[in-house]
Amino acid sequence: MTNFDFLLADKQFSSFADVAVAAEKLLHIDVDSCVLSCRRAMEFAVKWMYSVDRDLSMPYQDNLNSLMGDESFRDIVGTDIWRRMDLIRRTANNAAHSGKKVTPEMAELCIRNLFVFMDFVACCYGDDYVEPTFDESFLKEGTPHPSAAPTPSPIGEGKNFLFFFLRFTPFYRLIW
């Protein structure tokens, strides 16, 4: 489970739900990738909002900064959520372009801010909205995600590794 599973329940959010789930799962694997995935999920959700909300018209440029900077978009999301979104955008841009190292605390903050924005999207545009709660325990390292079951070894139980290696290694690699 993740904090973004509530998005998976509504099919209209499919264009960004999986990316939000992946962002949280990346937290303890690679914080830079986590932040970049937060930004990506947010951008997909913003573009989705522009596609379904008649009060929003696509600005001249369709990059995230232009979409977020549009006055009608800012009016819809409000100042608090807009600032949270801007923090995600700036943090991801720094990670991608400036080489600044993202701290785990900053990545967690991006996940929390993404949750607030996604909750807003679900509340305003979702079918059968039920307010989700943010579960801090999902952010703790070592907390297993039930969906992240260990993958079985390709060698399998009781198989001889040498047999597996020889069976699936091209012959020309064995000669060298």
Describe this structure in words.
This protein is mostly helical and 176 residues long. The chain has one domain (5-149): Four Helix Bundle (Hemerythrin (Met), subunit A) (Up-down Bundle), CATH 1.20.120.330. The chain is 61% helix and 0% strand. The protein contains eight helices and no strands. The chain has helices at residues 5-8, 14-25, 31-52, 64-69, 71-98, 104-125, 161-168, 171-175. Helix 3 (31-52) packs antiparallel against helix 5 (71-98). The longest helix is centred in the middle third of the chain and has 28 residues, at 71-98. The chain is globular and about 40 Å long. Residues 143-176 have low confidence and may be disordered.
